[in-house]
Design a protein that fits this description.
Layout: E1 3-8, H1 12-23, H2 25-32, E2 36-43, E3 46-49, H3 56-62, E4 72-74, H4 78-81, E5 89-92, H5 104-113, E6 117-120, H6 124-128, H7 130-140, E7 144-145, E8 168-174, H8 177-189, H9 193-202, H10 211-214, H11 217-231, E9 241-242, H12 250-258, E10 261-270, E11 275-284, E12 295-302, E13 306-313, H13 317-334
Parallel strand pairs: 1-2, 1-5, 5-6, 6-7, 9-11
Antiparallel strand pairs: 2-3, 3-4, 8-10, 8-12, 10-11, 12-13
Helix pairs in contact: 1-13, 5-7, 8-9
Length: about 350
């Protein structure tokens, strides 16, 4: 039995996912006895729809001209067709709307109401409407996976299954590569914040409007997802105390360095204090969280095994795509579509 997919969003992550699925097609079949058909790919202005399965080789060769394919349908919205398509899994890769979570939230709710399993790389719905999504998924007996929403391909959400016999008491993490890059440059070279930000933008590490990153909202959203998934909470981004990095000066970093510390933008969840905080903090220079560049790092304090630290590249199309494939294989195994 094939897994039948619909993908919403053919941006960087969506396209990388399609490329990786094509590249791994043989491996998926041989290693997991897993096969698939992609029935539809939705964009903001229409959709590619083929009930017999979209030919990925043909699609990828078209590049940005994919709308010239004969099965491109203009002005069709995913919410109009989710209930009518014969699919098992919906993959949601649209850009994050930090205020409403839309249109991703509606896509997810529509899919769950039609007993369709979910994989998402879009953070917004999960830090705004986590409880509503999970309650509906439980009611409809659907699987919801969203590993790519936090630290991309770093398997921090799925680590929960490997810590069943333990208990996480706190989370301390660096979750935004833009902030970490800026602070790393300011620390190493003594450059002012504005110059480090400009450099990050020129290198593609920061958006033209970097507000969500440098003011701490991106990290706060990811912290909520971590806390809800790993600690069993049901919080939203409104529950986080948030302070960004815009007021950090080279002088403050130099003073910290002279005392054997550095300043990092940390996301913290503490079970005992029941608090959620994103803010600049002093950490010792030999701390494992003192990472440079755009890396992410997550330190989980556990009751029976002390600290567990995982780190890696926390953003990027191929990285997020690999996390989505992991989630897809997980669902396929759970549903008996793969071994």
């Amino acid at each position: 039995m094939k897994v039948k997919l619909v993908i919403i969003g053919k941006g960087n992550v969506g396209t990388c996912f399609l490329q990786l699925m094509k590249e791994k097609e043989k491996v998926l079949k041989e290693k997991f006895d897993f096969s698939y058909k992609i029935i539809a790919i939705f964009e903001h202005d229409g959709a590619l729809i083929n009930e017999n399965g979209i030919d990925l080789e043909e699609l990828l060769k078209m590049g940005e001209k994919f709308r010239e394919l004969t099965y491109w349908k203009k002005n069709i919205k995913a919410t109009e067709l989710i209930s009518k398509l014969d699919i098992n899994v919906l993959v949601e890769t649209t850009p994050t709307n930090p205020d409403t979570g839309e249109p991703a939230y509606s896509h997810i709710i529509d899919a769950l109401n039609n007993n369709i399993d979910i994989i998402a790389s879009n953070k917004g719905p999960f830090y705004l409407k986590y409880k509503e999504i999970m309650d509906l998924a439980k009611e409809k007996d659907c699987i919801v996976k969203y590993e790519a929403t936090v630290a991309s391909c770093v398997p921090v959400l799925s680590i929960k299954e490997n810590l069943i016999g333990n208990e996480i008491t706190s989370i301390k993490a660096i979750l935004n590569g833009t902030c970490n890059y800026i602070l790393s440059r300011m620390t190493a070279e003594g450059v002012p914040f504005s110059l480090a930000l400009k450099e990050a933008q020129e290198l593609g590490f920061a958006e033209t409007d970097p507000t969500l990153d440098i003011e701490g909202f991106d990290s706060a959203g990811k912290l909520i997802i971590l806390a809800n998934e790993l600690l069993g909470w049901s919080k939203t981004i409104k529950d986080v105390k948030i302070i960004g990095i815009t007021k950090i000066t080279p002088q403050a970093l130099e003073l910290a360095k002279s005392d054997g510390f550095t300043i990092k933008h940390l996301a913290i969840a503490n079970v005992e204090k029941k608090e959620l905080i994103v803010e600049p903090r002093l950490i010792e220079r030999d701390s494992l969280l003192n990472i440079n560049g755009t890396l992410n790092a997550i330190e989980l304090h556990t009751k029976h095994a002390g600290p567990i630290i995982i780190m890696g590249r926390g953003a990027g199309g191929p990285e997020a795509a690999s996390a989505i494939i992991n989630d897809l294989i997980y669902i396929a195994k759970k549903r008996g579509h793969a071994r």
